[in-house]
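Ticket reopened. Same input as before:
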Amino acid sequence: MGRLIARRLLTAVPTLLAIIILSFILMRLAPGGPFDGERPLAPEVRAALEAAYGLDKSLPEQVWMYLTRLAQGDFGPSMVYRDFTVSGLVAEALPVSLLIGGCALVLASLLGISAGLWAALRAGKWQDEVLMLAATLLTALPTFVTGPLLALIFGLWLGLFPVSGQNDGWDWLVLPVVALALPVTGAVAKLARAGLAGELGSDHIRAARARGIAPLTILRRHALRPALVPVASYLGPAAAALLTGAVVIETVFGLPGLGRYFVQGALNRDYPLVLGVVTLYAALIILFNLFADLIYGWLDPRMREG
Amino acid sequence: MRPALVIVALIVLAALLVPPLLPFDHVAIDWDSVRVGMFTDGHLLGTDDLGRDRLARLLVGTRVTLSVALAAALVALVIGVAWGAIAGWVGGRTDELMMRIVDGLYALPFMFVVILLMVVFGRSILLVFLGIGFVEWLTMARVVRGQVIALKQRPFILAAEAAGSPARATLLRHILPNVAGVAVAYLMLTVPHVVMIESFLSFLGLGVQEPLTSLGILVNEGAEEMDMNPSALLLPGGVLVLVIACLTIAGERFRDRLADAAR
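Engineering reply: fixed in the latest deploy. New output:
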Protein backbone atom coordinates (compact mmCIF):
# COMPACT_ATOMS: atom_id res chain seq x y z
CA MET A 1 0.00 0.00 0.00
CA GLY A 2 2.88 2.33 0.82
CA ARG A 3 4.34 1.59 -2.59
CA LEU A 4 1.05 2.32 -4.33
CA ILE A 5 0.83 5.70 -2.62
CA ALA A 6 4.45 6.53 -3.40
CA ARG A 7 4.08 5.56 -7.07
CA ARG A 8 0.87 7.55 -7.43
CA LEU A 9 2.40 10.63 -5.90
CA LEU A 10 5.35 10.29 -8.26
CA THR A 11 3.14 10.08 -11.37
CA ALA A 12 1.05 12.95 -10.02
CA VAL A 13 3.99 15.33 -10.44
CA PRO A 14 4.30 15.08 -14.24
CA THR A 15 0.49 15.13 -14.60
CA LEU A 16 0.27 18.33 -12.58
CA LEU A 17 3.21 19.85 -14.48
CA ALA A 18 1.59 19.02 -17.80
CA ILE A 19 -1.72 20.58 -16.85
CA ILE A 20 -0.10 23.71 -15.41
CA ILE A 21 1.99 24.27 -18.54
CA LEU A 22 -0.98 23.52 -20.83
CA SER A 23 -3.24 25.96 -18.94
CA PHE A 24 -0.47 28.55 -18.84
CA ILE A 25 -0.01 28.48 -22.61
CA LEU A 26 -3.77 28.42 -23.27
CA MET A 27 -4.33 31.46 -21.09
CA ARG A 28 -1.56 33.40 -22.80
CA LEU A 29 -2.90 32.55 -26.27
CA ALA A 30 -6.17 34.23 -25.34
CA PRO A 31 -6.67 37.70 -26.75
CA GLY A 32 -6.90 40.43 -24.12
CA GLY A 33 -5.12 40.71 -20.80
CA PRO A 34 -5.81 41.47 -17.16
CA PHE A 35 -5.07 45.18 -17.55
CA ASP A 36 -7.52 45.90 -20.41
CA GLY A 37 -10.10 48.17 -18.88
CA GLU A 38 -12.64 50.71 -20.06
CA ARG A 39 -9.93 53.33 -20.49
CA PRO A 40 -6.59 52.37 -22.01
CA LEU A 41 -3.72 52.74 -19.55
CA ALA A 42 -0.84 55.12 -20.22
CA PRO A 43 1.96 53.16 -21.92
CA GLU A 44 4.40 53.78 -19.03
CA VAL A 45 1.85 52.59 -16.46
CA ARG A 46 1.12 49.52 -18.49
CA ALA A 47 4.80 48.72 -18.93
CA ALA A 48 5.40 49.18 -15.21
CA LEU A 49 2.44 46.89 -14.36
CA GLU A 50 3.60 44.22 -16.79
CA ALA A 51 7.12 44.40 -15.44
CA ALA A 52 5.81 44.11 -11.87
CA TYR A 53 3.91 40.92 -12.72
CA GLY A 54 6.69 39.57 -14.93
CA LEU A 55 4.55 39.68 -18.07
CA ASP A 56 7.36 41.35 -20.04
CA LYS A 57 9.51 38.22 -19.93
CA SER A 58 9.42 35.42 -22.50
CA LEU A 59 6.81 32.67 -22.08
CA PRO A 60 9.26 29.90 -21.00
CA GLU A 61 10.79 32.30 -18.49
CA GLN A 62 7.35 33.09 -17.09
CA VAL A 63 6.44 29.42 -16.82
CA TRP A 64 9.70 28.74 -15.00
CA MET A 65 9.14 31.68 -12.64
CA TYR A 66 5.62 30.46 -11.90
CA LEU A 67 6.77 26.90 -11.23
CA THR A 68 9.61 27.89 -8.91
CA ARG A 69 7.23 30.04 -6.91
CA LEU A 70 4.63 27.28 -6.88
CA ALA A 71 7.24 24.84 -5.56
CA GLN A 72 7.53 27.16 -2.56
CA GLY A 73 3.77 27.07 -2.08
CA ASP A 74 3.18 30.55 -3.49
CA PHE A 75 0.38 30.90 -6.06
CA GLY A 76 1.32 34.53 -6.73
CA PRO A 77 -0.79 37.68 -6.60
CA SER A 78 -4.17 38.05 -8.28
CA MET A 79 -3.94 40.40 -11.23
CA VAL A 80 -7.54 41.59 -11.10
CA TYR A 81 -8.46 41.54 -7.42
CA ARG A 82 -5.70 44.00 -6.47
CA ASP A 83 -4.02 43.53 -3.09
CA PHE A 84 -5.23 39.93 -2.88
CA THR A 85 -3.01 36.90 -3.27
CA VAL A 86 -4.37 33.84 -5.06
CA SER A 87 -3.62 31.79 -1.95
CA GLY A 88 -5.74 34.21 0.09
CA LEU A 89 -8.69 34.04 -2.32
CA VAL A 90 -8.44 30.25 -2.56
CA ALA A 91 -8.19 29.88 1.22
CA GLU A 92 -11.51 31.70 1.52
CA ALA A 93 -13.25 29.88 -1.33
CA LEU A 94 -12.00 26.31 -0.88
CA PRO A 95 -13.84 25.57 2.41
CA VAL A 96 -17.16 26.58 0.81
CA SER A 97 -16.61 24.31 -2.19
CA LEU A 98 -15.35 21.42 -0.05
CA LEU A 99 -18.31 21.73 2.31
CA ILE A 100 -20.87 21.61 -0.51
CA GLY A 101 -19.00 18.89 -2.41
CA GLY A 102 -18.36 16.78 0.69
CA CYS A 103 -21.99 16.91 1.86
CA ALA A 104 -23.17 16.06 -1.65
CA LEU A 105 -20.79 13.10 -1.87
CA VAL A 106 -21.90 11.69 1.49
CA LEU A 107 -25.59 12.18 0.69
CA ALA A 108 -25.22 10.63 -2.77
CA SER A 109 -23.26 7.63 -1.45
CA LEU A 110 -25.69 6.86 1.38
CA LEU A 111 -28.83 7.23 -0.73
CA GLY A 112 -27.34 5.64 -3.84
CA ILE A 113 -25.85 2.60 -2.11
CA SER A 114 -29.02 1.88 -0.11
CA ALA A 115 -31.24 2.21 -3.17
CA GLY A 116 -28.88 0.10 -5.28
CA LEU A 117 -28.60 -2.69 -2.72
CA TRP A 118 -32.34 -2.76 -2.18
CA ALA A 119 -32.92 -3.02 -5.94
CA ALA A 120 -30.37 -5.83 -6.25
CA LEU A 121 -32.12 -7.86 -3.52
CA ARG A 122 -35.31 -7.54 -5.56
CA ALA A 123 -33.61 -8.09 -8.91
CA GLY A 124 -36.12 -8.66 -11.72
CA LYS A 125 -39.11 -7.55 -9.65
CA TRP A 126 -41.02 -4.35 -10.34
CA GLN A 127 -39.34 -2.45 -7.47
CA ASP A 128 -36.00 -3.10 -9.16
CA GLU A 129 -37.29 -1.86 -12.53
CA VAL A 130 -38.80 1.30 -11.05
CA LEU A 131 -35.74 2.13 -8.96
CA MET A 132 -33.36 1.66 -11.87
CA LEU A 133 -35.50 3.77 -14.19
CA ALA A 134 -35.53 6.45 -11.51
CA ALA A 135 -31.76 6.16 -11.16
CA THR A 136 -31.29 6.64 -14.91
CA LEU A 137 -33.57 9.69 -14.81
CA LEU A 138 -31.53 11.09 -11.92
CA THR A 139 -28.29 10.75 -13.85
CA ALA A 140 -29.93 12.72 -16.67
CA LEU A 141 -30.59 15.73 -14.42
CA PRO A 142 -28.03 18.45 -15.13
CA THR A 143 -27.23 20.63 -12.11
CA PHE A 144 -28.02 23.78 -14.06
CA VAL A 145 -31.61 22.59 -14.52
CA THR A 146 -32.22 21.16 -11.06
CA GLY A 147 -30.49 24.08 -9.32
CA PRO A 148 -32.86 26.81 -10.55
CA LEU A 149 -35.83 24.41 -10.35
CA LEU A 150 -35.21 23.55 -6.69
CA ALA A 151 -34.67 27.23 -5.95
CA LEU A 152 -38.01 28.00 -7.60
CA ILE A 153 -40.03 25.28 -5.86
CA PHE A 154 -38.51 25.14 -2.37
CA GLY A 155 -37.19 28.68 -2.20
CA LEU A 156 -39.61 31.00 -3.97
CA TRP A 157 -42.89 29.06 -3.88
CA LEU A 158 -42.68 27.16 -0.60
CA GLY A 159 -40.23 29.53 1.11
CA LEU A 160 -38.52 26.66 2.95
CA PHE A 161 -34.88 27.40 2.16
CA PRO A 162 -32.88 30.47 1.15
CA VAL A 163 -32.10 30.59 -2.58
CA SER A 164 -29.00 32.72 -2.62
CA GLY A 165 -25.89 33.34 -0.57
CA GLN A 166 -24.60 32.01 2.70
CA ASN A 167 -25.90 32.57 6.24
CA ASP A 168 -24.87 31.57 9.74
CA GLY A 169 -27.22 28.58 9.88
CA TRP A 170 -27.11 25.43 7.80
CA ASP A 171 -30.25 25.81 5.69
CA TRP A 172 -28.44 27.59 2.83
CA LEU A 173 -26.63 24.31 2.20
CA VAL A 174 -29.71 22.20 1.52
CA LEU A 175 -30.65 23.22 -2.02
CA PRO A 176 -27.12 23.39 -3.50
CA VAL A 177 -26.18 20.05 -1.94
CA VAL A 178 -29.34 18.29 -3.12
CA ALA A 179 -29.01 19.66 -6.66
CA LEU A 180 -25.38 18.55 -6.76
CA ALA A 181 -26.04 15.12 -5.24
CA LEU A 182 -28.97 14.02 -7.45
CA PRO A 183 -27.10 12.86 -10.59
CA VAL A 184 -24.32 11.24 -8.54
CA THR A 185 -26.95 9.39 -6.46
CA GLY A 186 -28.38 7.87 -9.64
CA ALA A 187 -24.98 6.73 -10.85
CA VAL A 188 -24.03 5.24 -7.47
CA ALA A 189 -27.37 3.39 -7.24
CA LYS A 190 -26.85 1.80 -10.66
CA LEU A 191 -23.31 0.69 -9.83
CA ALA A 192 -24.27 -0.69 -6.42
CA ARG A 193 -27.14 -2.65 -7.95
CA ALA A 194 -24.98 -4.07 -10.74
CA GLY A 195 -22.25 -4.95 -8.22
CA LEU A 196 -24.47 -6.80 -5.76
CA ALA A 197 -26.62 -8.49 -8.41
CA GLY A 198 -23.46 -9.82 -10.07
CA GLU A 199 -22.00 -10.90 -6.75
CA LEU A 200 -25.18 -12.73 -5.64
CA GLY A 201 -25.06 -14.86 -8.78
CA SER A 202 -21.42 -15.86 -8.29
CA ASP A 203 -20.15 -19.29 -7.33
CA HIS A 204 -18.83 -18.50 -3.87
CA ILE A 205 -22.19 -17.05 -2.82
CA ARG A 206 -23.96 -20.13 -4.15
CA ALA A 207 -21.51 -22.27 -2.19
CA ALA A 208 -22.22 -20.25 0.96
CA ARG A 209 -25.97 -20.71 0.39
CA ALA A 210 -25.48 -24.43 -0.09
CA ARG A 211 -23.74 -24.61 3.26
CA GLY A 212 -26.92 -23.18 4.80
CA ILE A 213 -25.54 -19.86 5.94
CA ALA A 214 -28.27 -17.34 6.79
CA PRO A 215 -29.03 -14.94 3.90
CA LEU A 216 -28.28 -11.87 5.99
CA THR A 217 -24.89 -13.25 7.07
CA ILE A 218 -24.04 -14.07 3.45
CA LEU A 219 -24.87 -10.52 2.50
CA ARG A 220 -22.89 -8.98 5.31
CA ARG A 221 -19.87 -11.27 5.42
CA HIS A 222 -19.44 -12.32 1.80
CA ALA A 223 -21.33 -10.29 -0.77
CA LEU A 224 -21.30 -6.69 0.37
CA ARG A 225 -17.64 -5.80 0.19
CA PRO A 226 -16.88 -7.05 -3.32
CA ALA A 227 -20.26 -5.70 -4.48
CA LEU A 228 -19.18 -2.18 -3.61
CA VAL A 229 -16.00 -2.30 -5.72
CA PRO A 230 -17.68 -0.66 -8.76
CA VAL A 231 -18.97 2.12 -6.50
CA ALA A 232 -15.47 2.71 -5.14
CA SER A 233 -14.01 2.92 -8.61
CA TYR A 234 -16.60 5.57 -9.43
CA LEU A 235 -15.51 7.78 -6.51
CA GLY A 236 -12.73 9.44 -8.50
CA PRO A 237 -14.94 10.45 -11.46
CA ALA A 238 -17.70 11.36 -8.97
CA ALA A 239 -15.39 13.80 -7.22
CA ALA A 240 -14.57 15.35 -10.59
CA ALA A 241 -18.29 15.57 -11.44
CA LEU A 242 -19.01 17.24 -8.10
CA LEU A 243 -16.26 19.80 -8.65
CA THR A 244 -17.49 20.70 -12.16
CA GLY A 245 -21.10 20.67 -11.00
CA ALA A 246 -20.08 23.04 -8.25
CA VAL A 247 -19.06 25.64 -10.85
CA VAL A 248 -22.70 25.90 -11.92
CA ILE A 249 -24.19 25.46 -8.46
CA GLU A 250 -22.05 28.24 -7.01
CA THR A 251 -23.15 30.54 -9.84
CA VAL A 252 -26.83 29.65 -9.47
CA PHE A 253 -26.92 29.99 -5.70
CA GLY A 254 -24.52 32.92 -5.47
CA LEU A 255 -22.00 31.11 -3.25
CA PRO A 256 -18.42 32.35 -2.91
CA GLY A 257 -16.72 29.07 -3.88
CA LEU A 258 -13.80 28.11 -6.11
CA GLY A 259 -15.88 27.50 -9.23
CA ARG A 260 -17.06 31.08 -9.40
CA TYR A 261 -13.51 32.36 -9.07
CA PHE A 262 -12.47 30.03 -11.86
CA VAL A 263 -15.07 31.28 -14.36
CA GLN A 264 -14.66 34.91 -13.33
CA GLY A 265 -10.88 34.61 -13.45
CA ALA A 266 -10.95 33.05 -16.92
CA LEU A 267 -13.21 35.80 -18.25
CA ASN A 268 -11.09 38.57 -16.63
CA ARG A 269 -7.80 36.99 -17.81
CA ASP A 270 -6.65 36.81 -14.21
CA TYR A 271 -3.85 34.38 -15.13
CA PRO A 272 -2.54 33.47 -11.66
CA LEU A 273 -6.03 32.95 -10.24
CA VAL A 274 -7.07 30.58 -13.05
CA LEU A 275 -3.81 28.65 -12.87
CA GLY A 276 -4.09 28.37 -9.11
CA VAL A 277 -7.64 27.04 -9.25
CA VAL A 278 -6.87 24.58 -12.08
CA THR A 279 -3.82 23.27 -10.21
CA LEU A 280 -5.87 22.82 -7.09
CA TYR A 281 -8.67 21.03 -8.95
CA ALA A 282 -6.19 18.72 -10.65
CA ALA A 283 -4.51 17.93 -7.33
CA LEU A 284 -7.90 17.22 -5.71
CA ILE A 285 -8.95 14.89 -8.51
CA ILE A 286 -5.65 13.00 -8.38
CA LEU A 287 -6.03 12.71 -4.61
CA PHE A 288 -9.56 11.36 -4.96
CA ASN A 289 -8.47 8.79 -7.51
CA LEU A 290 -5.82 7.63 -5.06
CA PHE A 291 -8.40 7.37 -2.27
CA ALA A 292 -10.66 5.39 -4.59
CA ASP A 293 -7.83 2.93 -5.31
CA LEU A 294 -7.07 2.51 -1.61
CA ILE A 295 -10.74 1.78 -0.85
CA TYR A 296 -10.69 -0.59 -3.81
CA GLY A 297 -7.86 -2.60 -2.30
CA TRP A 298 -9.59 -2.70 1.06
CA LEU A 299 -12.84 -3.95 -0.49
CA ASP A 300 -11.26 -6.55 -2.73
CA PRO A 301 -7.85 -7.94 -1.71
CA ARG A 302 -7.26 -9.26 -5.24
CA MET A 303 -6.96 -5.67 -6.43
CA ARG A 304 -4.15 -4.88 -4.00
CA GLU A 305 -0.95 -3.90 -5.72
CA GLY A 306 2.68 -4.20 -4.67
CA MET B 1 -35.28 0.63 -25.72
CA ARG B 2 -38.10 1.22 -28.23
CA PRO B 3 -40.16 3.88 -26.43
CA ALA B 4 -37.01 5.79 -25.54
CA LEU B 5 -35.87 5.79 -29.18
CA VAL B 6 -39.33 6.82 -30.37
CA ILE B 7 -39.31 9.82 -28.03
CA VAL B 8 -35.86 10.87 -29.26
CA ALA B 9 -36.95 10.41 -32.88
CA LEU B 10 -40.04 12.59 -32.30
CA ILE B 11 -37.94 15.33 -30.72
CA VAL B 12 -35.42 15.21 -33.58
CA LEU B 13 -38.18 15.31 -36.21
CA ALA B 14 -39.90 18.23 -34.49
CA ALA B 15 -36.62 20.15 -34.25
CA LEU B 16 -35.84 19.54 -37.92
CA LEU B 17 -39.23 19.86 -39.61
CA VAL B 18 -41.33 22.26 -37.56
CA PRO B 19 -39.27 25.52 -37.54
CA PRO B 20 -39.69 26.21 -41.31
CA LEU B 21 -43.46 25.81 -40.90
CA LEU B 22 -43.71 28.39 -38.11
CA PRO B 23 -44.71 31.96 -39.01
CA PHE B 24 -41.74 33.29 -36.96
CA ASP B 25 -38.09 32.35 -36.97
CA HIS B 26 -35.93 32.21 -33.86
CA VAL B 27 -34.33 35.65 -34.22
CA ALA B 28 -37.22 37.70 -35.64
CA ILE B 29 -38.49 40.34 -33.22
CA ASP B 30 -42.24 40.83 -33.07
CA TRP B 31 -42.44 44.44 -31.89
CA ASP B 32 -46.19 44.34 -31.35
CA SER B 33 -46.12 41.46 -28.92
CA VAL B 34 -43.07 41.53 -26.67
CA ARG B 35 -43.15 39.20 -23.67
CA VAL B 36 -46.67 37.86 -24.26
CA GLY B 37 -48.02 34.67 -22.70
CA MET B 38 -48.89 31.40 -24.40
CA PHE B 39 -51.31 31.27 -27.34
CA THR B 40 -51.24 35.03 -28.05
CA ASP B 41 -50.89 36.67 -31.48
CA GLY B 42 -49.97 33.37 -33.10
CA HIS B 43 -47.11 32.64 -30.67
CA LEU B 44 -47.95 29.20 -29.30
CA LEU B 45 -45.55 29.48 -26.37
CA GLY B 46 -45.52 33.28 -26.23
CA THR B 47 -42.47 35.50 -26.73
CA ASP B 48 -39.42 36.38 -24.63
CA ASP B 49 -38.52 39.88 -23.45
CA LEU B 50 -37.04 40.72 -26.85
CA GLY B 51 -40.24 39.65 -28.60
CA ARG B 52 -38.81 36.47 -30.09
CA ASP B 53 -41.03 33.43 -30.56
CA ARG B 54 -40.39 30.95 -27.74
CA LEU B 55 -41.46 27.86 -29.69
CA ALA B 56 -39.12 28.68 -32.58
CA ARG B 57 -36.27 29.28 -30.13
CA LEU B 58 -36.96 26.05 -28.27
CA LEU B 59 -36.95 23.99 -31.48
CA VAL B 60 -33.89 25.68 -32.96
CA GLY B 61 -32.10 25.41 -29.63
CA THR B 62 -32.85 21.67 -29.53
CA ARG B 63 -31.55 21.33 -33.08
CA VAL B 64 -28.30 23.17 -32.28
CA THR B 65 -27.73 21.19 -29.09
CA LEU B 66 -28.35 17.87 -30.85
CA SER B 67 -26.18 18.69 -33.86
CA VAL B 68 -23.29 19.88 -31.72
CA ALA B 69 -23.67 16.71 -29.64
CA LEU B 70 -23.71 14.45 -32.69
CA ALA B 71 -20.71 16.18 -34.27
CA ALA B 72 -18.71 16.03 -31.04
CA ALA B 73 -19.65 12.39 -30.49
CA LEU B 74 -18.48 11.60 -34.04
CA VAL B 75 -15.13 13.30 -33.35
CA ALA B 76 -14.86 11.19 -30.21
CA LEU B 77 -15.87 8.08 -32.19
CA VAL B 78 -13.18 8.59 -34.84
CA ILE B 79 -10.37 9.31 -32.38
CA GLY B 80 -11.49 6.61 -29.93
CA VAL B 81 -11.92 3.84 -32.52
CA ALA B 82 -8.62 4.65 -34.26
CA TRP B 83 -6.70 4.86 -30.98
CA GLY B 84 -8.27 1.74 -29.46
CA ALA B 85 -8.03 -0.34 -32.63
CA ILE B 86 -4.35 0.50 -33.16
CA ALA B 87 -3.46 -0.13 -29.51
CA GLY B 88 -5.33 -3.44 -29.44
CA TRP B 89 -4.09 -4.61 -32.84
CA VAL B 90 -0.41 -3.72 -32.47
CA GLY B 91 -0.23 -4.77 -28.81
CA GLY B 92 2.97 -4.99 -26.78
CA ARG B 93 4.81 -1.82 -25.85
CA THR B 94 2.79 0.43 -28.17
CA ASP B 95 -0.42 -0.78 -26.54
CA GLU B 96 1.04 -0.26 -23.08
CA LEU B 97 2.13 3.30 -23.90
CA MET B 98 -1.12 4.28 -25.63
CA MET B 99 -3.26 2.99 -22.78
CA ARG B 100 -1.07 4.68 -20.17
CA ILE B 101 -1.72 7.96 -22.00
CA VAL B 102 -5.46 7.28 -21.82
CA ASP B 103 -5.18 6.50 -18.09
CA GLY B 104 -3.26 9.73 -17.54
CA LEU B 105 -5.78 11.81 -19.46
CA TYR B 106 -8.63 10.30 -17.43
CA ALA B 107 -7.15 11.88 -14.31
CA LEU B 108 -7.17 15.42 -15.71
CA PRO B 109 -9.92 17.88 -14.81
CA PHE B 110 -10.85 18.10 -18.47
CA MET B 111 -13.96 20.12 -17.98
CA PHE B 112 -11.73 22.96 -16.91
CA VAL B 113 -9.50 22.63 -19.92
CA VAL B 114 -12.59 22.83 -22.13
CA ILE B 115 -13.74 25.95 -20.28
CA LEU B 116 -10.29 27.47 -20.81
CA LEU B 117 -10.42 26.53 -24.50
CA MET B 118 -13.78 28.25 -24.87
CA VAL B 119 -12.56 31.38 -23.11
CA VAL B 120 -9.43 31.47 -25.23
CA PHE B 121 -10.65 30.80 -28.74
CA GLY B 122 -13.59 33.12 -29.10
CA ARG B 123 -16.29 30.52 -28.48
CA SER B 124 -16.90 29.39 -32.05
CA ILE B 125 -19.36 26.57 -32.47
CA LEU B 126 -16.77 24.55 -34.38
CA LEU B 127 -14.46 24.70 -31.40
CA VAL B 128 -17.22 23.77 -29.00
CA PHE B 129 -17.65 20.37 -30.58
CA LEU B 130 -14.01 19.80 -31.44
CA GLY B 131 -13.05 20.58 -27.86
CA ILE B 132 -15.71 18.32 -26.41
CA GLY B 133 -14.85 15.56 -28.88
CA PHE B 134 -11.21 15.62 -27.81
CA VAL B 135 -12.31 15.11 -24.23
CA GLU B 136 -14.83 12.35 -24.77
CA TRP B 137 -12.90 9.72 -26.76
CA LEU B 138 -11.20 8.02 -23.82
CA THR B 139 -13.91 5.51 -22.88
CA MET B 140 -14.45 4.67 -26.54
CA ALA B 141 -10.73 3.92 -26.95
CA ARG B 142 -10.75 1.56 -23.95
CA VAL B 143 -13.84 -0.31 -25.09
CA VAL B 144 -12.67 -0.70 -28.69
CA ARG B 145 -9.22 -1.89 -27.61
CA GLY B 146 -10.79 -4.58 -25.42
CA GLN B 147 -12.99 -5.70 -28.28
CA VAL B 148 -10.09 -5.83 -30.77
CA ILE B 149 -7.96 -7.89 -28.40
CA ALA B 150 -10.83 -10.34 -27.92
CA LEU B 151 -11.36 -10.55 -31.69
CA LYS B 152 -7.68 -11.13 -32.48
CA GLN B 153 -7.79 -14.64 -31.04
CA ARG B 154 -10.97 -15.66 -32.85
CA PRO B 155 -10.54 -18.40 -35.51
CA PHE B 156 -11.80 -16.33 -38.44
CA ILE B 157 -9.11 -13.69 -37.88
CA LEU B 158 -6.44 -16.38 -37.60
CA ALA B 159 -7.84 -17.90 -40.80
CA ALA B 160 -7.62 -14.57 -42.60
CA GLU B 161 -4.02 -14.17 -41.49
CA ALA B 162 -3.16 -17.72 -42.45
CA ALA B 163 -4.65 -17.05 -45.90
CA GLY B 164 -2.14 -14.23 -46.28
CA SER B 165 -4.49 -11.27 -45.84
CA PRO B 166 -2.37 -8.15 -45.26
CA ALA B 167 -2.68 -6.56 -41.82
CA ARG B 168 -4.45 -3.47 -43.10
CA ALA B 169 -7.07 -5.47 -44.96
CA THR B 170 -7.67 -7.72 -41.94
CA LEU B 171 -8.10 -4.69 -39.74
CA LEU B 172 -10.44 -2.86 -42.10
CA ARG B 173 -12.42 -5.80 -43.45
CA HIS B 174 -12.60 -8.20 -40.52
CA ILE B 175 -11.92 -6.38 -37.27
CA LEU B 176 -13.60 -3.01 -37.68
CA PRO B 177 -17.00 -4.35 -38.83
CA ASN B 178 -17.07 -6.50 -35.72
CA VAL B 179 -16.24 -3.55 -33.52
CA ALA B 180 -19.04 -1.48 -35.05
CA GLY B 181 -21.81 -2.73 -32.74
CA VAL B 182 -20.00 -1.87 -29.54
CA ALA B 183 -18.83 1.44 -31.02
CA VAL B 184 -22.41 2.38 -31.89
CA ALA B 185 -23.59 1.48 -28.39
CA TYR B 186 -20.97 3.75 -26.86
CA LEU B 187 -21.69 6.44 -29.44
CA MET B 188 -25.28 6.40 -28.18
CA LEU B 189 -23.98 6.84 -24.65
CA THR B 190 -21.53 9.58 -25.65
CA VAL B 191 -24.22 11.75 -27.26
CA PRO B 192 -26.19 12.42 -24.03
CA HIS B 193 -22.95 13.09 -22.22
CA VAL B 194 -21.95 15.66 -24.81
CA VAL B 195 -25.44 17.20 -24.69
CA MET B 196 -24.82 17.73 -20.99
CA ILE B 197 -21.38 19.33 -21.52
CA GLU B 198 -22.55 21.59 -24.34
CA SER B 199 -25.52 22.85 -22.33
CA PHE B 200 -23.28 23.33 -19.33
CA LEU B 201 -20.89 25.51 -21.36
CA SER B 202 -23.73 27.45 -22.99
CA PHE B 203 -25.34 27.93 -19.59
CA LEU B 204 -22.15 29.60 -18.37
CA GLY B 205 -22.16 31.75 -21.53
CA LEU B 206 -19.12 29.98 -22.93
CA GLY B 207 -20.66 27.73 -25.56
CA VAL B 208 -22.95 28.54 -28.48
CA GLN B 209 -23.37 32.31 -29.03
CA GLU B 210 -26.22 34.50 -30.25
CA PRO B 211 -27.91 34.68 -32.72
CA LEU B 212 -27.76 30.88 -32.47
CA THR B 213 -29.34 29.43 -29.41
CA SER B 214 -29.14 26.12 -27.59
CA LEU B 215 -30.96 24.36 -24.79
CA GLY B 216 -28.29 25.49 -22.31
CA ILE B 217 -28.78 29.15 -23.24
CA LEU B 218 -32.57 28.77 -23.01
CA VAL B 219 -32.30 27.16 -19.56
CA ASN B 220 -30.08 30.04 -18.47
CA GLU B 221 -32.54 32.64 -19.80
CA GLY B 222 -35.41 30.71 -18.25
CA ALA B 223 -33.72 30.66 -14.86
CA GLU B 224 -33.54 34.47 -14.93
CA GLU B 225 -37.29 34.88 -15.26
CA MET B 226 -38.55 31.70 -13.62
CA ASP B 227 -40.32 33.53 -10.77
CA MET B 228 -42.65 35.21 -13.27
CA ASN B 229 -42.74 32.59 -15.99
CA PRO B 230 -41.77 29.07 -14.84
CA SER B 231 -42.45 27.53 -18.25
CA ALA B 232 -39.45 29.41 -19.66
CA LEU B 233 -37.26 27.19 -17.45
CA LEU B 234 -39.39 24.04 -17.46
CA LEU B 235 -39.75 23.60 -21.24
CA PRO B 236 -36.09 23.72 -22.32
CA GLY B 237 -35.04 21.95 -19.11
CA GLY B 238 -37.65 19.26 -19.73
CA VAL B 239 -36.59 18.67 -23.33
CA LEU B 240 -32.96 18.50 -22.23
CA VAL B 241 -33.64 15.94 -19.48
CA LEU B 242 -35.87 13.90 -21.80
CA VAL B 243 -33.23 13.72 -24.53
CA ILE B 244 -30.44 12.79 -22.12
CA ALA B 245 -32.54 10.19 -20.27
CA CYS B 246 -33.95 8.52 -23.41
CA LEU B 247 -30.60 8.32 -25.17
CA THR B 248 -28.97 6.91 -22.03
CA ILE B 249 -31.68 4.27 -21.60
CA ALA B 250 -31.53 3.27 -25.27
CA GLY B 251 -27.73 3.17 -25.27
CA GLU B 252 -27.53 1.06 -22.13
CA ARG B 253 -30.12 -1.43 -23.35
CA PHE B 254 -28.29 -1.74 -26.67
CA ARG B 255 -24.97 -2.26 -24.91
CA ASP B 256 -26.40 -4.87 -22.53
CA ARG B 257 -28.06 -6.71 -25.41
CA LEU B 258 -24.74 -6.85 -27.27
CA ALA B 259 -23.03 -8.16 -24.14
CA ASP B 260 -25.71 -10.84 -23.74
CA ALA B 261 -25.39 -11.83 -27.39
CA ALA B 262 -21.62 -12.18 -27.02
CA ARG B 263 -22.07 -14.61 -24.15
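Chain B has one domain: 2-17+51-262. The domain at 2-17+51-262 of chain B is CATH 1.10.3720.10 (MetI-like fold). Please confirm and we'll close it.
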